[in-house]
Amino acid sequence: MSDDYGLSSVKETVAIAPPSIDYLPKMPTTYRPKIGLIGAGGVSEFHLKAYRECGFDVAVIADRNIEKAQARRDEFFPQADAVNDYRELIGRDEIEVVDVTPHPVDRVPIVKAAIAAGKHVLSQKPFVLDLDVGDELIAQAARQNVRLAVNQNGRWAPHFSYMQQAVASGLIGEVTSIDFSLQWDQTWITGNEAFEKIHHLVLFDFGIHWFDIAGCLMGDQKAESVFATATRFEQQTFEPPAIASAIIQYPSAQVRMSFNAHTRLGEEDVTTIVGTKGTLRCRGRGLNEQSEMQVFLENGCYVAPLSGCWTENGFQGTMAELLCAIQDNRTPWNSAANNTKGLELCFAALESANTNQVVPVGAVRGLLSF
Fold first, then answer.
1. Which family does the similarity line name (predicted)?
2. What is the β-pairing status of strands 175-183 and 148-151?
C-alpha cells in the first residue's frame, strides 16, 4: 500500500513561454485636465506622489486646515493653489476632476456638491457606508453626465492586476476557488485613536480591498453568502481584533480569506486562484513585495516577473483609469456602480462577524457601526 498520498503520480511540469499579460496602468493620451484634491490628510500623500509621477496637473488643494493644504502643495505641486474651503475649489471653472479623500461620513456631501457642479469625481474608498446613499450618488452622476469613480487602488497592485487580466482572458478557465492568506505586522497603529476605534479594522478598513478584488476576479459569478469571524487575543497591542477570516460562497466556487494583522515575525502574503484549466499563485513578504507570478497550465508552467508595487501602481491606476474613461467617453472600470459588489460582500462579512451567522449577500445595505 502506498504511503506517499499519491505524490509519486504528480506529473512533472514543463516550462513554457508566458503569454503577454498587460497589467500595468494605462495612461490617458490626450486628456490632461486640471485636478482639484480635497482633503490633505495622510492618504493624500500617496495620491499626490502618484499624480506627480504621472505628470497630472493638480491645480488646487483644499483642506479646512490651510497649513496642511499648503504643506502638501509645497511638497508636490508648488504651482497649485491652497485653499481652506472645498466649495471654493469646486466653484472654479478650470477644475474638471475632483479627488475627494476625507473619511466616508464627511465625504458624501462633498461628492454631492462636486457632482452638482458638473465635476468628474474620484472618491476615496470605501465609497459609502450605505448602499442606498451610493445609489443616489450614482444616479446623480448619471443625470449630470459626469463620471464617478472609486479609489479602489488594490485593483492596480501588480499581482492583482495580472491575475485579473489572466482570469478575464480565460487563461485558467472558470475560477473555482480563491485563497487569500495574509500575515502582516500592523502594530504601528497602537495608540492611534483613529485606527483603534475601528472595531473591524481588519475586515473593513483593510479587508475592503480583498472583498473588492474577490468580486472582480469572480466576474459574473454571483456570491450567495458570507461567513466571517474576528478574534482578539490577550497579548495583542491594539484594540481591534487582529485575526479575521471570511468565506464567500458561490453556487460552484468559494473565496476564502485569512488575516493576521499582528505578525511580528515571518510576514507573508499569498494569493492562489484555482481554475478549471490552471492555477495562479503569487507569494511575497508583503503588499508591496510581490515580484513574480507562478502560472500552472495544462501544457506547462511559467514564472512571470512583476514590475511596480501596490502603492505606486495602485494610486496611479485609479486616477489614470478615470481620465482614460473621460477621454474615451466610456464608463471607468473603477466606477462607483462597479464598486458596490465588493461593498455588499464586505457589509455581509461584518454582519456575519457580529452575529456569528451566515449572511446572504445583499441582505445588509448599510453599516451602523464598523
1. Belongs to the Gfo/Idh/MocA family.
2. unpaired
User: Grid coordinates 473591524 are at which residue?
Assistant: 200
> Phi and psi (nearest 5°) for 307?
-110, 150
pTM of the model: 0.93
Rounded distance between C-alpha atoms, residue 338 and residue 331, angstroms: 10
Question: Which cell numbers in the block locate residue 271?
Answer: 494569493
Helix/strand/coil for 331:
coil
Helix/strand/coil for 273: strand
User: Is CATH 3.40.50.720 the right assignment for the domain spanning 34-154?
Assistant: yes
Cα torsion through 298, 16, 306, 127, rounded to 10: -20
Q: What is the pLDDT of residues 229-268, one digit of tens each?
A: 999 999 999 999 999 999 999 999 999 999 999 999 999 9
Overall CATH class of domain 156-309+336-360 = alpha beta
Torsion of CA 280, 313, 320, 175, to 10 degrees: 10
- CB of 73 within 8 A of CB of 99? no
Mean per-residue pLDDT of the chain = 94
Delimit the domains of the chain by residue range.
34-154, 156-309+336-360
